[in-house]
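$ fold --in a.seq
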Amino acid sequence: AMVSRSLHSRAARQDCDVNCAVEMVMPLVCNPGHVLMFHKHMNCNCVHIELHNVRRIYKRRHGLRPLGLEVFCSENDFCSDIYLKFDNTADRDEIYYYIATFLENHMTEHTAESYMLQWQRGHLSSYQYLLHLNNLADRSCNDLSQYPVFPWVIADYTSPRLDMTNAATFRDLSKPVGALNKERLDRLLARYRGMPEPSFMYGSHYSSPGYVLFYLVRVAPEHMLCLQNGRYDHADRMFNSIGETWKNCLEGATDFKELIPEFFGTDPSFLENRMSLDLGRRQNGSLVGDVVLPPWATDSSDFLQKHKDALESQYVSEHLHEWIDLVFGFKQRGSEAVAAHNVFHPLTYEGGIDCDRIVDTDQRIAMLTQILEFGQTPTQLFTSPHPQRITPRFQNITRSSSINSPDAELSPGNIGEDSSFEDLTEESRKLAWANMESLKPVSRHKIHKEAVTGIAVSRDGSAVFSTSQDSTLKMFSKELKEFQRSMSFCNMPLSSCLVLADSKTVVCSSWDNNVYFYSIPYGRRQDTLMGHDDAVSKMCWFENTLYTASWDSTVKVWECTSDSSSAHKRSQFNLLGELEHDAGVNTVGLNPAGTLLVSGSKDGTVTIWDTSNYRTLQQIHCHSGTIHHMAFSPDSRHVLSVGADSCMKVIDVQTGMVISSVKAEEEQRCFCWDGNWVLCGGQSGDLLLWDLLTNTVTKRIPAHSGAVTAMWMSELCTTLITGGEDRQIIFWKLQS
C-alpha cells in the first residue's frame, strides 16, 4: 500500500526506530530517499510494508559491493517487494538485523544446501531450484546487472519435432557457452595465452543489462530506450529468432549469453510484439515483430511449455549439476575455472576491484558504471562439486542379506524379487513414513540391568534379541511377550548385535575386544572372533563378510569360510582387509547393495569406502565430537550421521559434500530414515520425527526415561523397537 509523503517529514523521522538514507533500486534507475523503521512496519519512498508480512530478506551485492537489501512479502515470488541500496554496509546490516530480529519466529531460513537436497530428491523442480540459487547468489529482477541467469538447454532449433529421448537434442551443460564451439574456443584460447595479466578468455559476460533487455525489449521497451540513449538497437541485432540467437551464441566472436527465467515461465508476452512497437526493418526487408520460433513449437505458449519440459527432462536432470558448477560452483573461479574454459573479465568477479579505494570521483563513477553495464558473475555458492540429481533410473534398491538392517519385516515370506512386489513395498514404505506421526507404543519390557546397546530380530519376527552394557544377550519372544533366554559371554558390556540371514546365529560385539557367535537352535556360544586391540563398537554383515569397527582405530573385514549355523564345526575367519583410521571407530554401516561402507570416528570424521577394493572414496570431518550413528539412504546416494555435537549431517556420497546440516536441541543417539524423513532417538528419551527438507522437528514422541540408545525398524516401516538407558525395550506400531 502507498502512504503519503508526509511520513518522510521530520516528525515521522523522529518517531521511527531507525532512519537511513537509501536508494530504491529498480531496473536501470535508483531513486534516492529514506527508509524508516517503526515497531511493526517500514516505509521507504512512499512504500509501506508491514513487518509481519515479510517472508524473506536477503543481503545483496550492488555493483559488487555489500550494500543491498531485498525484501520479499511472499514465499515463491520471482520479484521482490522492495530492493534497497545503502551508502554503507553498516547501515544495511542494521536494517537487516532489525527486520530479522522481528521475524526470527516467523521466517524459515534456507541455505543453498537445503535447497540442493530438496532438488536432488525431486521435491523441487529444476526451475524452482535455479530460481532459489539465483536468489541466494544475489541475482534480482530489480537489478539488470545481476538479473537471474538460466542455461540454454536445447541445441535443436531446426527439427519439426523435439525428441527429448535423444541426447543430441540438448546443449552440453558441462561447458560454458563460449566453449561449445571448438573452433571459436581455440581462437579465444590462443588470444588468452598471449594476453598480459590480468588475462581472460571471454571479453563479454553471459549476463548483462544489455542481454537481459535484448530478450525483454517487447515487454520493457522503455528500459531498452533508456539503455540505448532513446533508440532501439539495429533491427538485425534485435531478438528476432530463437534459432538465430542460439546460432550466434555458438558462432559469434563476442556473444556468450545464457538465458533468463522468462524462457521457462508461463507468460509468452516477451516473445510477442503485443504493443505493436516499431522495432525497425531488417536488411531483408522484413519488419521486426514476434520472435520467430523453432519448427517444433506451434506458438509461443507451446514453446515455453516444451522449453520447460526440456529443463525438467531426464537428460537435463542428470547434467544440470555440471552447469551449476560453472555458474554458481567450484568451477567459477581459480584453476578449476581455467580448466573448464570459464574465465571472464576480472571486473565481473566480486573482489576484482575495490571501488571505495579509488580516490578520484570521476574514475570511481566510471568504474562502477563499467561494472554495472558489463555484467557480474554470481556469488559463489558451492566450493566442491555439486551432486547429481537422483533420477528414476538410479533408484534401484538392492536388498541386503543382513536381517539386522531396517530392511527386515516382522513376518515371514516378505523377501521377494518380483518387481511388482518391489513397487508395492516401496509405496508401503512411503505411506508408512507419511503416517509416522501416528506411532504408538504397544508394550514395554524392562529385561536388562543396564542400558540397551543393540536390537536385532529373527527373519520370521518371532524372536527379538538385545544386547546391553550389563554384558548379556537377551532373547525375547514377541508372541509370548516375555524374555526366554539370557546369555553372558564375558564380564564386559556388549555393544551391538545382529541376526544372520539363516536366523540361526546371533553375532554380538563386546568391549572385551571380541565378537561372539551364538547358536539359536543349540542355545550356546558357537565361536569367538578375537581380532581387535580395543573394544569392538559396531558390526555389519553382508553375505559371508563381517565388518567389525573398533576403538583401536580400525575396521576389519572378515570372510566366514564355513557354515556358522553348525553347532559342531567351528567357523573359520579370514582377514580380508584392515581399514585404518586416525581415531577410534564408533559406528559402521553398509549400503543395501553391500558395495559401500561408511565408518564414523570419535574425532568426528566420516569415511566412505569401496568394499570391492577397500579404498577410501570420501573422507569428511563434519562433526566436532564422537559420531554416534550413521546410515546410507535406501538409494545409497546419501549418508546421514548424528554425533555428540548434537548435529545431524547429510553427506552426498558422490561428491563428499555436506548438503544438509542441522543443530538439534539435544544429542541424537540413533535413528532410522528413508532419505527424506528421520526418526531419531534423543538424549532426553524422546523420539523426534525430523523433516530433512525443512530441517524441522514435526513430532516429538515421549518414549524412554533416559537416552534412546538402540533402534530397529521393520522393512515396511510399520513396526519399531527401541531400547534405552532406562533398561527398557519398547515395541511400537503405526496406527492405521
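$ fold --in b.seq
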Amino acid sequence: MNECSQSGMQCVKLPISVRVEINLLLLAVTGLALVTRLYGIHFPRAVVFDEVYYGQFLSLYMKQVFFIDESGPPFGHMVLALGAYLGGFDGNFVWNRIGAEYTSNVPVWSLRVIPALAGSFCIPLAYLLVVELGYSHFSALGACMLLLMENSLIVQSRFMLLESVLIFFLLLAVLSYLHFHKARNFKSALVKYMGMFTYFLLLGLTAVHTWQLIGDRTLSYVMVQVLVRFLALVVLPVIMYIGFFYVHLTLLYRSGPHDQMMSSAFQASLEGGLARITQGQPLDVALGSQVTLRTVSSKPVPCWLHSHKVNYPIRYENGRGSSHQQQVTCYPFKDVNNWWIIKDPGRHTLVVSSPPRPVRHGDIIQLLHGMTSRYLNTHDVAAPMSPHSQEVSGYIDFNVSMPAQNLWRVDIVNRESDREIWKTILSEVRLVHVNTSAVLKLSGASLPEWGFKQLEVVGDKIYKGYQQSGMWNVEEHRYGRSQEQKERELELKSPTHSDIKRNLTFMAKFLELQGWAIFPILSINSNLFLCAHICMLFSFLRSPAQRKAFGVVILAVLCSVYVSYHNLSPLTYGQPALSSDELAALRWRESWDILLRKR
C-alpha cells in the first residue's frame, strides 16, 4: 500500500507532457543564411575595405590602449573584439592599407565570424518580424528569400565590419518591441549612433500605443503600463549604454594615440603618456609656478598657449594694422615655448616662496612667457583673423602711446568655493583681462604663413556663458626656483617629475566622451523594410485566380533575384578567379567600373 492510501489521501497522477513546435521553414532559411554568409570567410587573407579601420581598434583593444571612435558607442567594437579575443589575436598587425596580407598571427576566421553570424541571423529575424506584423508565413518566406540572396548584404556580412551587426540589433529591437507590446519584454543595444533613429521610432510607437490605452482602461492600469514602458524603453537602455562605456574604460586603461583629444585630467588618469609627465607635480598653483596652459576644448585640435620671438606684421594683407608686438598663439604640440610663469603683479620675484603662496579664485596675476620674458597682454587692437575681438600679444614697449595691459583675473569655473585654490589639471580656469574685461579665448582660426599656421588666440569682450574655447587648465607644472633668465631657460627645458596620482571618476570620463558622440544621417538598406511588400500583397488577394497569377509573378521575381545572385557571386565570394573579360561581362551598364588587381 502506498503512502497516499495509508494517510487516507487521494492521489492523482498528473501526466507530464512536452510540446515542441518546429518551424521547418524558419530552420531552412536560417541554415541557408549560415551557408551563404559563412562559406569561405577566411578568403581573401588580406585586409578588405573598412577592415583597415576597425582593425586598428581591435589591436588597441587587445593591447588595452585607450581610443576614441566618433561613429558610435563602444559596444560594436567590443563585439568585434570578442571574436579577436576568442581567436587569440595579440593585436600585433599594422593596419595601414587595404589589401595588406594578413600575417600568420591574425585569426582571420575569428575576426570575421561574428559579423557573419549577425548577418545570418538577420534572415530569421526578418521572417519572425513579418509574421509578428500579422502577415502569412508565405509572405515571410518571400521576404527572407529576397534578403537571403541580396549580394550587398552578403558581402558586408562576410568581413570584419559593423553593418551586419547594426542591422541585426535594429531588427532585434523592432521585433523585441512587438513582443514587448504583448509580453512586456524589451531589450535594446546600440552599435552605431545611427541606431538611435530606430530607438526613436520605437519610442514614438510606444507613445501612440500608450495614448490608445487612455480612455479604455482604468487610471491605475494606464499608470502601470506607462511605468513598465518607461523602465523597458528608457531606464534599461540608459543602464546598458552607460554599462558599455564602463566596460570600455575599464579595459582600456593605457595611454594611446587618441589621448591628446581628451582633457588633461582624462589623460592623467591613463597609465603612461601624460601620467608619466605629470606624476608628482605640485597640485596647488602658486605665485612663481611655471605652467603650461591647455585649452579645455579639443576643437579644432587640442593646443597650448604659446609664444615665440616673432612679431605680428605691421600691416596685414587686408590693410589693417597691428601692434607689431610678439605673437601669442595656441600650438597643438608640446614645446618649450608653451611655458608661462604665474607672477605676482606687486613683486619682481619669479620663484615660488617658502611656503608657497597659492593662487585662488579672483586673484589678479601676470603671465610671463618663460623663454622670451614677455608679459601676456591684450588691448584695443583688432585680432588678425577675428577683427571683432582683441589682439593678444607678448608686450613690447616701443615707446609709443600703447601702455602695457597685462593684468588678468583668475576665474575658476568649476570651483566649489569662492576662495578655491587653482589646481593643476583639475581646475578649469577663465582668464579675464582686468582693463577690458575680455576673456582669453581660442578663436579656432588658423594664422597665415607669418603665424606658422598656428591657431589664433584672442581677447573676447562679448564672451558669455560656458564656452570651452575660453577655458584653460594647467597641464604641466613645477615650482620655479630660478630667478635669472638663463638658469630659468634650462629649468624650463628639464622634465617634471612627481608621484601624485590623478584619479578621474568613471562618470567624469563618460560625460567627457559624450562630447565626441556625433549623430550621422540615417542610412539603412531599404531592402530590410521594403522587400517584404511584394510578398505581403499576396495576403490581400481573395480570388484564387488572382492569387495564382500573383504567385507566378512572385516566382518570376525570385528567379530573377537568384539569377542575379548567382551571376554576381564571384564578386560576392571572391572566387572562382575570373579573367578581365569575364569580369567585364558582369557589368550591367557601361558606366560600371570593376577594378582588376593583378598579382
